[in-house]
Amino acid sequence: MLSRKIGIDLGTATVRIFVKGEGVVVNERSDHKRTLHELIGKANGRPRLFRPDVVVSVPSAVTSGERRAVTEAAISAGARQVWLIDEPLAAAMGAGLPIAEVRATAICELGAATTEIAIISRSGTVVEHSLAVGGNDLDRAIARRLSIDERAAEAVKIAVGSAVPLQEPLVTTVNGQEVSSNAVLEAIEAPLRMIAGAVRDVLRQTPAGLAADVRERGIVLSGGGAQLRGLDRYISVHAGIPATVAAEPQTSVVRGTGMALENFEVLKRNQSYIR
Ligand SMILES: Nc1ncnc2c1ncn2[C@@H]1O[C@H](COP(=O)(O)OP(=O)(O)O)[C@@H](O)[C@H]1O
Ligand SMILES: [Mg+2]
Prior knowledge:
Layout: E1 5-10, E2 14-19, E3 23-29, H1 36-44, E4 53-58, H2 64-76, E5 81-86, H3 87-94, E6 105-110, E7 115-121, E8 124-131, H4 135-146, H5 150-160, E9 171-174, E10 177-180, H6 181-205, H7 208-217, E11 219-222, H8 231-239, E12 243-245, H9 252-260, H10 264-269
Helix pairs in contact: 3-9, 4-5, 4-6, 6-8
């Protein structure tokens, strides 16, 4: 392989990088000081004769100015070719959805700051919505309820959090107070309702035939937030469509950028391609 192929997921909480032939090679907390430049250099390894081809996933709500900035940063970091791909499409690919089919598929990518929902058909996004509610909002809701800081709240969410009542609630201790899954559920109900509501809204905006496909096939939940216990059941009930969690949901997007590197149809259809 003469030039490397690199896929980048610039997440709010975590940056992930996929290198073809090596898999996910960088998986670390986002740090504003780390530039795309440094990341591409790191992923590219020792100095090479040929510059890398790079795919970067961006949230679908990112403006064209921001898209240009990311593209230019990647070019100045040494990329030979740069393509951007919308995050939900990358997530759908990484989650193994048959995006090229005419029959529609649906993805809900739950990140730290946002939830991105998209209906996809023929390798393109038909309807999408980016909701400014993500895992951080669940942490904030738990923090408020328990009067603890957001870091501790995130730990509680991961330890015992559940989107549905548990027959045998899990219990953890923070600052000497016992917290059960059911207490967490009460705290996070409001943001969860907003997420389910957004899924319903997207379905309402979807052309009838494609919406019927999605009702039949269901929606796949991806992103770190998809790991919340019972979220699949919660979305199934409150959005009225079957929901399942992707395998390894936290790396769907970055693995999807890697798959997009091999899928010119997707790059071309979804892309401002810059050389
Ligand atoms: N087991 C878990 N249960 C619930 N939420 C989780 C779990 N693991 C991670 N998260 C949440 O996932 C979010 C990060 O997801 P990620 O997809 O990596 O975000 P981003 O792409 O925005 O950086 C955080 O809000 C984190 O608290
Ligand atoms: Mg993400």
